[in-house]
Amino acid sequence: MNAVIETQGLVKHYGPVVAVENLTLTIKAGEVYGLLGPNGSGKTTTILMLLGLTEPTAGEVRVLGFDPWRQALQVKRRVGYLPDSVGFYDELSGRENLHYTAQLNGLSAAEAEKRMDDVLARMGLRDVAARRVGTYSRGMRQRLGLAEILLKQPQVAILDEPTMGLDPEGALEFLDMIRGLKNDGISILLASHLLHQVQAVCDRVGLFHQGRMVREGTVEDLSVQVLGGAYVVRVEVDGPRLETALGQVPGVVRVAFQPPRTYVVESRADIRGAVAQRVVAAGGTLLGITLERLGLDQVYARSLQEVRHEA
Amino acid sequence: MKPEGATRPGGATRPGGATKREGSPWTGLWAVTAKELADHLTSVRMTILELLILLTALGTVYAAIQTLRQVVGEDPFLFLRIFTTETERAGIQFSFLTFLSFLIPLAAITLGFDAVNGEHNRRTLSRVLSQPIYRDALLLGKFLAGLLTMAITLLALWLLVTGLGIFRLGVIPSGEEVGRGLLFFLATVVYAGIWLALAILFSVQFRQSATSALVTFGLWLFFVLFWPVVVGIIAPVDTFSTLAQAQRSLFLSRISPNTLYTEVVVALLNPETRALGPLLLTQLEGAIRAPLPLLQSVLISWPQLTTMIAEILLLFAGTYVLFQRQEIRA
Q1: What is the spatial distance between Cα B63 and Cα B65, in angstroms, rounded to a whole number?
Q2: Reduced to 3 states, what is the DSSP secondary structure of residue A149?
Q3: How far is B147 from chain A (nearest CA, A)?
Q4: Residue B9: inside a domain, yes or no?
């Protein structure tokens, strides 16, 4: 089976509040899928339904071919979950916390010891494994959470806001570890509102807004789809106005003039050379030229504008 | 993409359908119980309580033995008297039993008041429930661990008291005394179970541990201090039949688990007890004033004992329903 997670027309209401509305989602084996959206957009609710911890109001869910609500044990045996701001038993050591998880998973004592040694070493926690978790930093807790997932040797890992509260360096390191999970062949569902951090690891993303999936695709696809282009070239020019001239450069989607002398050129490719030539040919003096890649932040902001506009 | 229908989720087992959930609800029960038991036995909270129980119990027992030493040889149930003999010190009458009936609920509530909301507040609940266990196992595991902790403490206490009795009185307990003592121990564990179940119920209901602790302790105080007063007020006065009135107020007072426990213990520890309600003189006519055999005493206390067990089951069922319906997200 190619899809590890499938939902169809998934709906969740909390009383009158609609948390998730008609969600259809497919996550393929081996991919890293980013569920992106602001807080309260239904990401965590979706995850809880995938794990059978909340009953859907309507719709279908299949995780690895199992129904999470009726076959919860089958699903939870194969899926690792790192909750939003994960908590551990502070009075126990990191290793003791893992030991409890191993027991809940029914691992034999010998197998548990072996796996614990492996995952603690892999997450760089071997030296602190005997310390109380109460003394751990936020980054160490997050890594212990990842160690707990690895302990289960899951087929799917679901991570809710894994980089929240980490410093930029810690976040990068953590994202690297997530890539490591992918290399192990684990499919990953990653929910986050920190778009710029997450776009680097995700194969595909789905943008969430008020319980609905607004857009879905790879980061590049979305940039082209939503913004028209994936690049922005900023040109500083002394001389006559050049909007029309720049608009004729192949690949340009949109040109905007920012006084006093900057043009913002959106394009589908890196066209700095062509732009520079056109400026000079049109009699302008080129003062500077820079290239920016559009990120998910812009895609998301633009998508939401469109959604609001439609509504 | 994919052909529609080939791997399309759906079919017979749609959510909300009649299909039952799969897998044993007790998967992981032992892991939860063992972990919680270890937590209880090493926690500072429990150590302090155990010390408190031990000191007060030994103090009262020692005082009782001092009194009993004068009557060794006259009383066939010396070892039961250790528990019930009241000593007066500084104008306060107390016995091992009165202390125990105070301390048991205290300890049981302390073990249970933050069972579920504590996990919630530490944000461990969603992580634990994402492991391959059902909520049933978590709840029952916590209850069993609490009950086992109480049982271990009480068993140690009972053995200590009996040992102290042998040592200080110089007599060996008879088989019947041991039997009655064991039943007394079991009844006490059941009594502890009621308060434990109640504490866990409130720990599911209230998100704040402080709230659940206060409500459970409040309810306990209500039953210990105010319920007898309330019964006196609301039991209707019947000028024609004192018997009917006595029975009504007895019925009301038995709503309190405190009353039930006291009655069970009275029947078990005082073999002379013939009934746990009002007894007419005519009913006693021709009766020989002698202790009842163990089985008869058990028979007398049976309704109370089963009621206590039923109360535990009801409280646990309520907790279970509440917990199953609860959203676990923070």
Answers
A1: 5
A2: helix
A3: 20
A4: no
In this complex, do B23 and A55 lie within 8 Å of one another by their Cβ atoms?
no
Mind telling me how many Å the CA of A155 is from chain B's nearest CA? 14
Tell me how far apart the alpha carbons of residues A86 and A278 are, in angstroms, rounded to a whole number. Answer: 55
Nearest to A84 among B8, B15, B330 (CB): B330
Dihedral sign computed on CA atoms, order A191, A194, A198, A203: positive
B252 by DSSP, 3-state: which? helix
Placement of tokens 């009842």 in the chain = B292
Interatomic CA distance for residues A167 and A254, integer angstroms: 36
Directed axis angle between helix B29-42 and helix B135-169, to 10°?
50
According to the model, what pLDDT value does residue B330 have?
58
The whole domain housing B129 covers: 29-273+290-325
Task: Report the number of distinct structural domains present in chain B.
Answer: 1
Looking at residue A229, what is its pLDDT?
A: 65
- pLDDT tens digit sequence for B236-247: 777 777 777 778
Which domains can be identified in chain A, with CATH numbers?
A: 3-223 (3.40.50.300), 231-293 (3.30.70.100)
Residue B285 inside a domain? The answer is no
pTM for this structure?
Answer: 0.86
DSSP state for residue A268 in the 8-state scheme: S
Q: What is the ipTM of this complex?
A: 0.85
